[in-house]
């Protein structure tokens, strides 16, 4: 039995909807249903009456809910006590962030914070979007930084998980230059000579962004699969070696663009702007994070939006 099954069950009891509870728990509805079924198998009884709409708790489910809420409450209270004893010193942050953000954005951002608040000690955990969300939801970080596009939202409860836009990045199609300093591989390609595509995995956030970009294009580019990874740094290395065309965040390749070792391989129609957002759990009180959040919100208001990540 896993504690997340109990948390799923409590969410379902609160929302009385598989779809809404699954969205709150940041899991697909099919995956959420499987976890509820696994809990019922462990208990040895049906906890949910699926014959009614909305679904209701059975008598066994009502009994189990009382104990489940008490146990989970005690577990989280105990965890809070332990964490308060082991909390990082003042002006310290535990940050979950995507690999590209951790490499390209956070070092400069943290230097800026230190210039304003004095030394800021940070423990940065580079990870994928899914695991970053789990760290935030499970209370394992003070801040989560991730990319965002309005058509590819993160399923977080906005009343609990506040966000601020701290930057805007652009996914650009890039290629190694040819002898005339133009792109070695230029979009859109042709059916006779499709371009080698160094791509993201379909389930990665950037992979979904590129798929969205293609869906909005007037005509799909002529590409052939060459290599796949969920890390932009891997795609960048292969693009530098001339292995194909790749869509990379501008913030991660500004040095290469300035040096001419990578060049843009298509017009603006092949680019996609994405926000860079900072998230926090508003139910967790932390004096330094509260102060930092007020300053970030003021900066965002003063600049009438976030700056481009140059």
UniProtKB/TrEMBL annotation:
Ranges for domain HTH lysR-type: 1-58
Any matching Pfam family: HTH_1
DNA-binding as UniProt keyword: yes
Cross-referenced InterPro entries: LysR_HTH_N, LysR_subst-bd, WH-like_DNA-bd_sf, WH_DNA-bd_sf
Keywords of this entry: DNA-binding, Transcription, Transcription regulation
Protein family: Belongs to the LysR transcriptional regulatory family.
Name the record gives this protein: LysR substrate-binding domain-containing protein
Lineage: Bacteria, Pseudomonadati, Pseudomonadota, Betaproteobacteria, Burkholderiales
């Amino acid at each position: 039995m896993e504690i997340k099954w109990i948390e799923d069950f409590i969410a379902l009891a609160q929302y009385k909807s598989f779809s809404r509870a699954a969205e709150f728990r940041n899991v697909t509805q099919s995956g959420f249903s499987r976890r509820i079924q696994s809990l019922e198998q462990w208990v040895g009884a049906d906890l949910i009456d699926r014959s009614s709409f909305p679904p209701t708790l059975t008598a066994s489910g009502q009994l189990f809910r009382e104990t489940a809420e008490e146990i989970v409450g005690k577990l989280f209270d105990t965890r809070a006590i332990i964490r308060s004893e082991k909390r990082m010193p003042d002006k310290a942050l535990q940050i979950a962030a995507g690999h590209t953000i951790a490499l390209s954005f956070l070092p400069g951002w943290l230097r800026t914070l230190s210039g304003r608040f004095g030394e800021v000690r940070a423990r940065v955990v580079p990870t994928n979007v899914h695991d970053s969300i789990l760290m935030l939801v499970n209370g394992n970080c003070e801040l989560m930084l991730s990319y965002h596009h309005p058509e590819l939202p993160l399923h977080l409860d906005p009343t609990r998980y506040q966000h601020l836009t701290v930057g805007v990045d652009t996914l650009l199609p890039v290629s190694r230059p040819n002898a005339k300093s133009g792109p070695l591989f230029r979009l859109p390609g042709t059916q006779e000579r499709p371009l080698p595509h160094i791509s993201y995995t379909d389930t990665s956030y950037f992979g979904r962004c590129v798929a969205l970009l293609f869906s909005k294009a007037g005509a799909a580019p002529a590409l052939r699969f060459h290599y796949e990874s969920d890390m932009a740094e891997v795609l960048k290395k292969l693009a530098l070696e001339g292995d194909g065309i790749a869509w990379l965040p501008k913030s991660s390749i500004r040095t290469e663009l300035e040096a001419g070792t990578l060049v843009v391989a298509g017009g603006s129609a092949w680019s996609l702007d994405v926000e860079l957002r900072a998230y926090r759990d508003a139910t967790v009180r932390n004096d330094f994070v509260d102060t930092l959040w007020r300053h970030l919100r003021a900066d965002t208001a003063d600049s009438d939006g976030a700056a481009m990540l140059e």
